[in-house]
Amino acid sequence: xxxxxxxxxxxxxxxxxxxxxxxxxxxxxxxxxxxxxxxxxxxxxxxxxxxxxxxxxxxxxxxxxxxxxxxxxxxxxxxxxxxxxxxxxxxxxxxxxxxxxxxxxxxxxxxxxxxxxxxxxxxxxxxxxxxxxxxxxxxxxxxxxxxxxxxxxxxxxxxxxxxxxxxxxxxxxxxxxxxxxxxxxxxxxxxxxxxxxxxxxxxxxxxxxxxxxxxxxxxxxxx
Length: 223
Hints:
The protein is mainly α. It is built from 6 helices and 7 strands.
């Protein structure tokens, strides 16, 4: 009996020491080391890739999450884009749900519709017509053949923060006219915010919509 108690005490003591050591290593030292390295080497990314306004320093969002630029909602009507701003990709895959306590939740995802699905085809056609209507200006109509694919299709997450340089340039004239800015100034903003392929070969050139619109807001305010 005494031998059994001693064995149990020995095992309990060994387990307690192991728990203490692993708690310190995995629960304290490792998180501190990783956090320190992240803050030292990649502080911008470690803190959420925040984008701030140059004048006020106010955080306006993350460069990793897309935002909508819509007019104030009207009762019984779907949100309409605010055409003073560059518009992001469609977000057809997003959905909403609740957590059972009345809190609204935004669900990220894709449509998962096949390329020949009638619903997807109607969605693309409607998006294409809207892009033509919204971005055509007097004397400068937008032709459907000029519209890049990202202007009428949503991303896999529905939260893509970037658009193609082609879609940004397509919107530049409309944005310039709506904000009473010279077109060359708006096009210069697009060029300044165009990023190339990662490491020179991964992905496609892109423009972050939030960063571009933040710069546009500063340009309008500084007129």
